[in-house]
Design brief:
Elements: H1 5-13, E1 16-22, H2 29-39, H3 48-53, H4 60-70, H5 77-93, E2 96-103, H6 105-109, H7 115-133, E3 136-144, H8 149-159, E4 168-172, H9 184-192, E5 196-201, H10 207-215, E6 221-224, H11 232-240, E7 244-247, H12 249-254, H13 266-271, E8 275-278, H14 283-286, H15 290-300, H16 305-317, H17 323-340
Parallel strand pairs: 1-2, 2-3, 3-4, 4-5, 5-6, 6-7, 7-8
Bound molecules: hypoxanthine and zinc ion (ZN).
Residues 22, 25, 60, 172-173, 200, 203, 251, 281-282 line the site of hypoxanthine.
Length: 343
Amino acid sequence: MASHPDLDRFVAGLPKAELHVHIEGTLEPEQMFELAQRNGIGIPFDSVEALRAAYSFSRLQDFLDIYYRGADVLRTQADFRDLAAAYFDRAAADNVIHAEIFFDPQTHTDRGIAFDEVISGLLAGMADAEAKHGLTSKLILCFLRHLDEDAAFATLKAAEPWLGSIAAVGLDSSEVGHPPEKFARVFAAARELGLKRVAHAGEEGPPDYVWQALDELGVDRLDHGNRSLEDPALVTRLAREAMTLTVCPLSNLKLCVVGSLDAHPIEAMLRHGLRATVNSDDPAYFGGYVNDNYRALAATGGLRRADFATLARNSFHGSFLSDAEVTRHLAALDAYVEGAGAA
Ligand code: HPA
Ligand code: ZN
C-alpha cells in the first residue's frame, strides 16, 4: 500500500465523531489479562501475543465466538468504567470529539452480571471522558439478534430506570438467519419510550434486511449497510432519505466482507451521494481505532482530502447530537480544513 504522509496527517487531525463502536470490542488483550487477574478468572491463552494470534476470522461468526468469550472477564462496575476509559483515551488521541457507543447488556446479564452494574460503570467512564478530554458520548443499547424477542423485551424492561441515559437501541450479533423483522415489536416499543433506533444490516445479510431495517424497525441510522449497493432502488431510497451508514473498513476486511480495501464500497457510497461515515466497530479485534480506519482508506489512493472532510462532516450530521451541537462541531471541522490548506 502506498504511503501518503500529508493525507495521513490531514485525516488524523480531522475533528470527528465515532458512531459505530462496540465497547466490548475495545477490550485489548492486555486489559483482558489485567481484568482476568483482578477478578481471579482463567484465560485459555498463555500470553497477549497468543491471544492476538487467535484473532483470525473468515466470517462474522468466527469473531463473535471469540468476542463473547473475551467479555467474560468483565464483571464489576469498575471493569466497565475502566474499559470505557481506555477506549475514550484512544478515541481522544484520534481527535474523536463525540462518540456514540454500543453495549450488549445480554452478553453480561446472561452471565449473571446485573444490568445496573454494566450501565453504571459505562456511564461513569463516559462522565470521566467528558471531564478529562471534553469528549462527549451517548449510549446505544444493542439487542443480540441471535436471541429471541422475549429476551429483547426483558432487556428493554431492565433498561427502563436508565432511559434518561440511553440514546438509542440497536441490533447486533449474528445477522444471517436473524432478520430485522424478528424485532419489529421491540423496536416499536423502544420508539414509544422515546428512543432512537439503529440496526446492523447488510454486513453479511442481503439488501432485503436493509429494507426491513428501514420499513419494519424505522431506523434513524444504518450500521454497515455495505450490501445495499447490490440494489439500485435501495441506494436511491438511502440517498433520498440522507440515511447515515456507519461503515467500518478494517472490520469489513478482517471479517472478509470485502476482499481488500481497494475493493471497499465506501468510495462508491460517496459517489452515489450516500451519507457514509468511518468507524472502528471492534478496534481491539480488527487492528485499529478510527484513525487507523481513515488512514487505511487513505492508503488505497481512491479518496481525496475533500472526501475525508465529507466523511467526517457526515459523522456529525449522522450523530444524535442537537442541531446546535452539530453546527458547532461542523464549524470547528471547517476551520480545520481551511487551516490545512489545499491538498
Ligand atoms: N456485527 C454484528 N455484531 C457485532 C459486530 C459486528 O460487526 N461487532 C460486535 N457485534
Ligand atoms: Zn458493529
